[in-house]
Give the backbone structure.
Amino acid sequence: MWRTFVFISLTLLVVTCGAAQLPACSDRAAYISQPWIDPALACLEEVINDPSVGELGFAALAVAPDETLYAARPYTGEVIALTDTNGDLLPDAPQVVASGLTLPSGLAYHDGALYIVGGQHIYRLIGTELETLVEDVPAGGGFWTGGIAVSDRIYVSTGASCDACVPEDSRRGAILSYALDGSDEQVIATGLRAPADVAFWHDELYTVDSARDDLFATSDLDELNHVTPGANFGFPNCAGNQPDLGDCGGSTAPVLTFPTASTPLGLAAYTSDTLPLLTDSLLVVLNGSYNQLELRGYLLVAVRFDDNAMRYDGIMPAQSSTDVERFTVDQMNYRGSGFFPQRPLDVAVSERGWVYISISGGRIIAMRPK
């Protein structure tokens, strides 16, 4: 009995501490093959798939150091926590840990606390204690309050009040900053339309934005922006820093652009060596185009520096690596190898270097070591 106990304990220790000792992908009960990724990248597994929770049943994500996975449910005003209860090291068994929230749209875990932003509110959850830090984040009409990032201060992105107008409140379409107790509001950057998320990468703050609805025919206007104090990114007169669309007025240029209407939503820095093909990248969720025959987005991409410039590569779905058949992202989505007709919503990275992606329709998937 004692020997059996020692063997089991050592086995669990190896599996827990040595990511390379996880079972082969095909031997894992939660293994899935779609959306398609490069087989050399990671093992793709299903965390949860529950259509009964609705389109945004699992939206914004965050992971605590103990590997608890948090997910926001905007329409029910809840945040749930998923922990591993069956020993496969994947979070499962969702439990509501916060309720009565206003459209929770962004999550960030920092120094023992889960920070939540939604509507006009910023909340902080420590254990089972929920505290409201801010009650007057500018919101209502137009675009939702976006994401949240926390370091020495709290950083929140706010949506503009309409698709193509100058907001009456300068705090709309902006990046706001607060002290950790919710005091000392500061406007850090302006001129944004729908900054859906914020994240730190290389100790610098980044946000995303998407172009006006009437600009679908103009290419590459959705943005990745480096947030610096006083930056103005040009909304509504300048999209993608293209002067022919209007007077840019000296606005701050994006550091990278994505296809117009690809709709960047989620951001997460990947600094781990666990999945080497992702190391030192910024993961960006491209939620996808709406009401168009041409599909744009429906992708998880990895942004990297290359010769002091930025570029991005499609991670999920990834193009086929064979020379016989290479499908475009559109073709892969239509063939059932991508996210379509569902949409990726957010991405989060754990301290182990495991990647979680939320998908519309009540689904969360994970990329873990092979």
About this structure: Residues 1-20 have pLDDT under 50 and may be disordered.
